[in-house]
Specification:
With about 300 residues, this protein is mainly α. About 70% of the residues lie in helices and about 0% in strands. It has one domain.
């Protein structure tokens, strides 16, 4: 059965997708089943996200964004006063809440799904990679030799069992992570034109035919057109950077609070990697907040 109920045949879908792919990255006919499955999941997602659901997600995202900004501001004030332990607690909270805002607004997760994200916010990203659409996308795009390197379970174990090691990342290690954020930002910005072209091709090749067939209504298409017009590739970069920030901040909710923990509150001084590099983390979070704010305005139409 065709995933779009006859709107596209299997061959047409594969042809459309390959038109969106860069040279040298075309998907072979042997992957047609994966293309069809991804299309079916895309179609299901469109139908699931009604106007009411989108509006609820956006309203919830704005709420999480507001409290994230509040915690970030408080963290900066405490940091300036030398109260580094409490500053790091609030830094973790600001990051966690910003992750939840991103998942509501950017990844279109529901408020119910967001409630399942605990204090270990990096785990939310692993959940995405285990969703069916992500596994199908990996099957389509990741070369065979590299697929074995994708180890979500191993990444989860790192978060669950090595929080102390993550909390004690050195100054140099955190500097390296922050530099990765800068590289990602520059790389994504360099792809601004191809990304916009991809969005244009998606509208012309997929969205408008779905509108013509009655699967998408005019309001949904208007929002997609508005999104294409105002979309900023910087949001993609900030979403990637936010994942890295969640990795280096998640352990710091509890260690500064309790004197009987593996890491003592007095450890939080300017010799500690996360404390010394907090200004760099603040900078990345400010960028993520700025881009998400703009995106939420666009999504609201």
């Amino acid at each position: 059965m065709d995933p779009f109920d006859g709107v596209f045949s299997s061959d047409q879908l594969l042809e459309l997708v390959n038109e969106l792919m860069p040279p040298g990255k075309k998907i072979p006919p042997t992957k047609a089943d994966s293309v069809n499955r991804l299309a079916a999941l895309f179609n299901s997602s469109i139908l699931k996200n009604s106007e009411a659901n989108i509006d609820e997600n956006l309203a919830e995202a704005r709420s999480w964004l507001a409290v994230s900004e509040r915690d970030l501001k408080a963290s900066k004030i405490l940091y300036g006063k030398g109260d580094y332990g409490n500053a790091m607690i609030l830094l973790q909270q600001a990051t966690e809440k910003l992750v939840k805002a991103h998942f509501l607004g950017f990844f279109t997760k529901s408020p119910k799904e967001i409630r399942s994200i605990g204090h270990k916010s990096p785990v939310a990203y692993f959940d995405i990679f285990e969703e069916e659409w992500a596994t199908v996308l990996i099957d389509l795009l990741v070369p065979e030799p590299h697929k074995s390197k994708i180890n979500i379970k191993g990444a989860r174990d790192e978060i669950n069992y090595k929080s102390e090691e993550m909390a004690m990342l050195s100054d140099k290690q955190i500097e390296a992570i922050l530099s990765i954020c800068d590289v990602v930002e520059k790389t994504v910005k360099s792809q601004r034109k191809p990304i916009r072209m991809l969005m244009e091709n998606t509208l012309n090749g997929i969205v408008y035919p779905l509108q013509k067939d009655g699967i998408l209504d005019d309001k949904q298409v208007e929002r997609l057109e508005y999104l294409k017009k105002h979309f900023r590739v910087e949001l993609v970069a900030s979403a990637s950077s936010l994942y890295l920030m969640s990795l280096i901040t998640f352990p710091h909710l509890f260690y500064p609070r309790y004197p009987d923990g593996a890491i003592k509150p007095e450890t939080y001084n300017l010799e500690m990697g996360i404390v010394k590099n907090a200004p760099g983390v603040y900078k990345q979070l400010n960028k993520a907040i700025k881009e998400l704010k703009k995106y939420l305005i666009v999504r609201s139409g």
